[in-house]
Amino acid sequence: MGDPTAEREQWGSRIGLILAAAGNAIGIGNLLRFPNQAASNGGGAFMIPYVVSLLIFGLPMMWIAWTIGRRGGQFGHGTLPGQFEKLWPNRSAKYLGMIGVALPLLFCLYYTYIEAWCLGYSYFSVTGNFTDGPGRTVDLKAYFDEFLGTSATHSYFSGMTAAFVFLLITLLLNVWVLYKGVAKGIELLAKIAMPLLLLFCVVLAVRVFTMGKIKGTALDGLSFLWTPDFAMLAKPGVWIAAAGQIFFTLSIGFGSMECYASYLKANDDVTLNGLTTASTNEFVEVIFGSMIAIPAAAVFFGAGAVGDIAKSGTFDIGMVSMPEILRNTAGVEVFGAIWFLLLFFAAFTSSVAVAQPVVAFLQDELKMKRETSVTIVGLVWFLGTIPVIWFYKYGVFDELDFWAGTIGLVVCSIVEVILFAWVFGIRRGWEEMHRGADIQVPQIFGFVMKYVTPFALIAIFCWWFYDAIKTDQLVPQPKITWGVANRQEYEGSFEKWARTDLRTEEGKKAQKKALEEVGEIEKGVKSAVREAHRDLSAWAEVSVDAQGNAKVTSFHADPALAKNLDGPKFERWLSLQEWHFKKGKLDQAVAAPAKVSIELTGLNKAPFVWLTRIIILLMGLAFLVLIRVAWRERPAPEGGVS
Amino acid sequence: MNVGAAVFMLATWTGIVALTVYCFWKFMHAPSKK
């Protein structure tokens, strides 16, 4: 082989590389998923398993990724198939690397959609689309559901055109950056986006901490997030959650960081680069991740409500609670746009990093030109994203995230660490890692890489799989979606759990009992959907009085659903959840009567979930075939088994 | 803000800021290879 690096691209500068690698790691999860996970898993005490996970998974895998990537790059391989073969000279090695090309492509298909939401919402902030106006009231939860097309109602969006348009813009921006190449595209983007991202973080943190006191203070939010609950440390789930967060946040275990490192020269440092990438990511996650969303929620909703908001889910914090806060304080056009642009830039620098391995595979292994590679990847990306959008409500997005973002990450990491520490050998790996190193990694990490990381990863994989089986995640279940059709006529919000005091033990017990009965009613709806093998809908006219008592005045349902859900059952279902209407703005809202039309649909998710799984399998097979084609005329790896 | 929360938060933040500053300091003083 001549000089395989001669035709490969290179980073323009070291600071550009660091910013691009940090941009790869820093994503939406830093600002939304971290506070959600910390709040749900012991507050300040969560930092103990979090730091342990950083030491036994995060940093070792980060250094391994950089080392494998740089080594592969010296032989002209930017992706895991070729890079694995250079660790293990065996004909099977390249096929194991398939996962490092298929996973990034699967990520692209759904991650870009989240990025598009952020771009869309920054536009909506500037235009005032989600702020209340004369004769127009916006329920942000319903607004978000309708934007995604998951709601049965159409009060704010008649269809999914807006989501599609923003996705198209986002996709074109990504393709444009990739088209420009590593130095003039990805690196330039990082040099612009990363400083802006940090500036936006500072501006928003200052904004939140100068809001003063509305229902609480920003310090109440910090106090809530950081108060340690040591009893939680006894729960294995908390340790698993911390390990999961470290994986998601550092962008390790799927070939993206390896691809960036492949554009280094043979003697460029990887130890300091890896550590700087991780520390910059942690800086944004732990400091700014806890200084914006949760303190803002504490100011606006009060310390008592911040717990429910923090645990409401990553997307609810970002796309429902934050816009609610921002539109009710001065300057929503500016601060709303800044918040969503911050999320957009965080996602943008990650999505180009995720797509680059796919482009690099076509360039390096199939010898395509960059322009051709990007065009092909762009087309597959576009076509693959369409089902994610159109069938979002049927769980296609969640299914991709489960297999690629949860199981796939761990499987890829297990293969990678075993090949590096056991097959290639930790002694050789350590020498390779320290060639041209700017810092010496403590020896203990050699032991961790060989013994602790692989076994802990296998334990996590087993736990996740066991949990997925236990919670029936592998068997597609129908999903119930419902909404108020004439939502726009009511200025205020439709809420649940008005009477139950969830701070008391009795309140929690009462809610648990009510939820069990709610679950029984929903089970009936789901069972009807399963039997009918199609979506089933019901429509009800409902009156709710000022005391929050709901009464169904008329009810119609699909004949296949009618035997399991009738008017009285539907009324019971609403009453059990204490569903009611509150008139006026959040601060001064009071229970009030309302007459509404409700549409409920039981979605038959199974065919879409199975189709997604088949597509994932086919994509893996397609890459195996491409690898075979690419290696067709290559000699067996030196010292390998043929 | 309660004391336990403040201690955990400040200790974690200090550790992360120190690590990040160390990395960038080393980075600025590393022999120029690129």
Could you characterize the architecture of this molecule?
The complex is a heterodimer of chains A (642) and B (34). Chain A has 642 residues and is an alpha+beta fold. Chain A contains 25 helices and seven strands. The longest helix of chain A is centred in the middle third of the chain and has 33 residues, at 332-364. Chain A starts with 13 loop residues before the first helix and ends in a 12-residue tail after the last helix. Chain B is rod-shaped. The N and C termini of chain B lie far apart (46 Å). Chain B is built from one helix and no strands. Chain B has one helix at residues 3-29. Helix content of chain B is 79%, strand content 0%. With 34 residues, chain B is mainly α. At the A-B interface, helix 1, helix 10 and helix 13 of A face helix 1 of B.
Biggest sheet of chain A: strands, sense, closure?
4 strands, antiparallel
Looking at how many chains there are and whether they match, the oligomeric state comes to heterodimer
Main beta-sheet annotation of chain B: none
Q: How are the strands of the largest sheet of chain A arranged?
A: 1-7-3-4
- How many helices of chain B? The count is 1
Whole-number mean pLDDT of chain A: 90
Task: Bin the helical content of chain A.
Answer: 55-70%
What structural class should be given to the helix and strand makeup of chain B? Answer: mainly alpha
Strand residue content of chain B: under 5%
Shape of chain A: globular
Enumerate how many helices of chain A there are, as a single number.
Answer: 25
Helix content of chain B: over 70%
Distance between the ends of chain B? 46 Å
Q: SSE order of chain B, as H and E?
A: H
Shape of chain B: rod-shaped
Please give the radius of gyration of chain B in angstroms. Answer: 15 Å
Q: What would you report as the Rg of chain A, rounded to the nearest angstrom?
A: 26 Å
Number of DSSP strands of chain A? 7
Mean pLDDT across residues of chain B? 87
Strand content of chain A: 5-15%
Beginning-to-end CA distance, first to last residue of chain A = 19 Å
